[in-house]
Amino acid sequence: MMQATQLTRRFGGLAAVNAVSLELQLGEVHAVIGTNGAGKSTLINLLSGELPLSSGQVRLDGEDITGWSQPRRARAGVGRSYQRTTIFDSFSVRENCRLSAQAALQQPWHLWQSAQRCTRSLAVADEALHAAGLADDAQRIAGTLSHGQKRQLEIAMCLATRPRVLLLDEPLAGMGAEETGRMLALLQSLKAGHAILLVEHDMDAVFRVADRITVMVNGEVIASDVPQRIREHPEVIVAYLGEAHA
Amino acid sequence: MLAPLSRALPLLVLLALAALPAMLSPYLMDLTVKILVSAIFALSLQLLVGTTGLVSLGHAAFLGIGAYVTVLGSPQGEGASLWWLLPAAVAGAAAYALFVGALSLRTRGVYFIMVTLAFAQMAYFVFHDTKLGGGSDGIYLYVRPTLALGGVQLLDLENKRHVYALVLASLAFTWGLLALLLRSRFGHALQGIRVNEARMRAVGFRTYGYKLAAFVIAGALAGLAGCLLAIQDGVVNPELLSWHESGAVLLMIILGGLGPLRGAVVGALAFTLLKELFASEGLVGPLAAHWQMTLGFTIIAFVALLPRGLVGIRWRKAATP
Question: Tens of pLDDT along B2-26?
Fold first, then answer.
């Protein structure tokens, strides 16, 4: 569904992402793992359009979207979540999702209609909250949620944009075992209708849900394969997985 | 019980204000009109600062342009028709806001503050240093405009009560428009931009367009305030566009409370009254000559003690159970 070809992003002399190619397919969780500073978050920023490419090409359903802005890509179905939670703290949980859903039907000139009565965006928002397990907390102020719930809201806001491609930046960061289990179940259920890119540090989780794993070191891909072969890949073991996983 | 009351409050205030001229002395009448015009000006900036999170230090430029268009568009011998003069003043301010906004909104934070200030200073010096608007002395509005419909004169703005009615109607219009806007999807998007613009872009909002629309609407409403100010004062000078004015209106909304519409109105009221108080020799004696100092200290004290402004006082009590 989404193809990235030879993506490169330089910051000054440093190539944070260097000639990375990967493909995201419907029904697949494609995990990207690597040490801190390997360029995983930068890769998400390049795919979502938050950062411009130095060189390379991004395609969505075969169409070249390299020159598209981030908002345009988002409206075309590229959703992302953030590693550091970036929700609207002062709004209610439901409004966080409603506003995200509104992006698909903006019509800002409809001044006489109250946003709180925008049934279309509310329906999408409630659906996303339900999927992310936050339906009971819809009326709370987002800033008062627990850390795990904020991570769930982060995903719910992403879902509320009705994306086809999900770019998830460490959705499990700082989550307890139970919350992790719930999130992984959610990812499994989302797989059917989405192409998912998962950047994650939790190796157990990655090997549980990923259909394909790409390993990055210093901005470059050193291996990309199914989980079983990644586990046995000599370079990956040396560079990243270490003795424990070998 | 409380909710319907607070919803009806603006309407009650409007009714009270409509009844006011009958019992006011000419001095108090002038002061009230001044406060109402300031309230329109402050409301226009509230949309930018309190709603969208764009701190502009050049908002007086739009006030001044609205005022200058009003005076320059009035023929010397007879009163111009308000039907086209007022829209012209609003359109003039909006056009400059479109130009300034299109360029300045490419910057952020402190750079945005500096760029808006620079564009306002540019407009200030155009009026200050050229013959266009009478130079540094400004120009007089010899005959105030009139409003007629089908041969019947509705408003003669040489009459103070008619000016009052026009200003009050304009304030009601401004409040109504902004209230409608804030509850709409457009308004919610603006608030989202204030809280987290990066996220707004990530979910698919082209935030630049939204910010530019807010900037132009704010500029247009400031132009409306400028037009009314020119009609009230009968004179305009470049000081209307100066950064002092831009700073004063910013202080009004900070004093009243950033965000809610009533914060702008309460702030305009408090600021104008405090200024009047500290500049009055009868009340503060020789200190009146140093009103900027006393006003400044008072505002510092208010801001330090009331971080949410004057309208935040009740909220804080309500928030603690």
Answer: 567 777 888 889 988 988 888 888 8
Enumerate the domain spans of chain A: 1-77+164-246, 87-162
Q: What amino acid is encoded at B20 in this protein? A: L
Backbone φ/ψ region at B53: left (φ over 0), alpha (ψ -120 to 50), beta = left
Which of A90, A103, A116 has the CB atom closest to B205's CB atom?
Answer: A103
Find, in chain A, the residue whose alpha carbon is nearest to that of B210: A108
Across the interface, which of B188, B204, B213 has its CB nearest the CB of A75?
Answer: B204
At the fourth CATH level, the homologous superfamily of domain A1-77+164-246 is: P-loop containing nucleotide triphosphate hydrolases (3.40.50.300)
User: B35-77, pLDDT tens digit by residue?
Assistant: 999 999 999 999 999 999 999 999 999 999 999 999 999 888 8
- How many whole angstroms separate alpha carbon B147 and alpha carbon B145? 7
Q: What is the DSSP string of B93-117?
A: HHHHHHHHHHHHTTS-HHHHHHHHH
B131 touches chain A (CB under 8 A): no
pTM of the model: 0.91
Half-sphere exposure of B201 (CA within 13 A, CB side): 16
The ipTM (two decimal places) reads 0.88
